Amino acid sequence: MQNERQLGASIAAHTSWANTINRTARTEPARRALEQRFLDEAGGDPVRAESLRKAHFKRLAFRSAQSRRRAREQIQAAEAAEAELKNLGGHGG
Questions:
Q1: What is the pTM of this model?
Q2: 6: buried, middle or exposed (CB in 10 Å: 19+, 13-18, 0-12)?
Protein backbone atom coordinates (compact mmCIF):
# COMPACT_ATOMS: atom_id res chain seq x y z
CA MET A 1 0.00 0.00 0.00
CA GLN A 2 1.23 3.46 -0.81
CA ASN A 3 2.30 5.77 1.96
CA GLU A 4 1.05 9.34 2.28
CA ARG A 5 4.04 10.88 0.50
CA GLN A 6 3.60 8.57 -2.48
CA LEU A 7 -0.10 9.31 -2.62
CA GLY A 8 0.54 13.06 -2.51
CA ALA A 9 3.08 12.77 -5.32
CA SER A 10 0.68 10.66 -7.35
CA ILE A 11 -2.12 13.19 -6.89
CA ALA A 12 0.21 16.00 -7.95
CA ALA A 13 1.34 14.10 -11.03
CA HIS A 14 -2.20 13.29 -12.11
CA THR A 15 -3.24 16.90 -11.56
CA SER A 16 -0.28 18.14 -13.56
CA TRP A 17 -1.07 15.83 -16.48
CA ALA A 18 -4.76 16.76 -16.31
CA ASN A 19 -3.73 20.39 -16.75
CA THR A 20 -1.41 19.61 -19.68
CA ILE A 21 -3.08 20.48 -22.96
CA ASN A 22 -0.30 19.28 -25.29
CA ARG A 23 1.12 16.08 -23.82
CA THR A 24 3.34 15.46 -26.85
CA ALA A 25 5.04 18.83 -26.51
CA ARG A 26 5.53 18.32 -22.79
CA THR A 27 7.39 15.03 -23.29
CA GLU A 28 9.33 16.07 -26.41
CA PRO A 29 12.53 17.11 -24.55
CA ALA A 30 12.74 13.76 -22.76
CA ARG A 31 12.15 11.79 -25.97
CA ARG A 32 14.78 13.84 -27.78
CA ALA A 33 17.28 13.31 -24.95
CA LEU A 34 16.72 9.54 -24.99
CA GLU A 35 17.22 9.38 -28.76
CA GLN A 36 20.38 11.48 -28.38
CA ARG A 37 21.65 9.07 -25.73
CA PHE A 38 21.30 6.15 -28.14
CA LEU A 39 22.96 8.13 -30.91
CA ASP A 40 25.86 9.06 -28.61
CA GLU A 41 26.28 5.43 -27.52
CA ALA A 42 26.35 4.40 -31.18
CA GLY A 43 29.07 6.91 -32.01
CA GLY A 44 26.71 8.91 -34.20
CA ASP A 45 25.63 5.96 -36.34
CA PRO A 46 21.81 6.15 -36.67
CA VAL A 47 21.48 2.48 -37.66
CA ARG A 48 23.33 1.32 -34.54
CA ALA A 49 21.38 3.86 -32.46
CA GLU A 50 18.13 2.31 -33.66
CA SER A 51 19.37 -1.14 -32.62
CA LEU A 52 20.32 0.21 -29.19
CA ARG A 53 16.87 1.80 -28.86
CA LYS A 54 15.14 -1.47 -29.79
CA ALA A 55 17.33 -3.41 -27.35
CA HIS A 56 16.50 -0.92 -24.59
CA PHE A 57 12.75 -1.31 -25.04
CA LYS A 58 12.99 -5.11 -25.43
CA ARG A 59 14.96 -5.16 -22.14
CA LEU A 60 12.16 -3.18 -20.45
CA ALA A 61 9.55 -5.58 -21.83
CA PHE A 62 11.59 -8.57 -20.66
CA ARG A 63 11.91 -7.19 -17.13
CA SER A 64 8.19 -6.40 -17.06
CA ALA A 65 7.33 -9.94 -18.09
CA GLN A 66 9.64 -11.33 -15.40
CA SER A 67 8.01 -9.10 -12.79
CA ARG A 68 4.50 -10.15 -13.82
CA ARG A 69 5.52 -13.84 -13.74
CA ARG A 70 7.03 -13.47 -10.24
CA ALA A 71 3.91 -11.69 -8.99
CA ARG A 72 1.69 -14.40 -10.47
CA GLU A 73 3.84 -17.13 -8.85
CA GLN A 74 3.67 -15.39 -5.47
CA ILE A 75 -0.11 -15.11 -5.69
CA GLN A 76 -0.37 -18.79 -6.60
CA ALA A 77 1.90 -19.75 -3.69
CA ALA A 78 -0.14 -17.63 -1.27
CA GLU A 79 -3.39 -19.16 -2.51
CA ALA A 80 -1.94 -22.66 -2.15
CA ALA A 81 -0.78 -21.89 1.38
CA GLU A 82 -4.21 -20.53 2.31
CA ALA A 83 -5.89 -23.62 0.87
CA GLU A 84 -3.51 -25.88 2.80
CA LEU A 85 -4.14 -23.95 6.00
CA LYS A 86 -7.89 -24.20 5.48
CA ASN A 87 -7.62 -27.95 4.84
CA LEU A 88 -5.70 -28.30 8.10
CA GLY A 89 -8.52 -26.60 9.97
CA GLY A 90 -6.98 -23.15 10.16
CA HIS A 91 -8.77 -19.90 9.64
CA GLY A 92 -7.14 -18.72 6.41
CA GLY A 93 -9.22 -16.76 3.84
A1: 0.67
A2: exposed
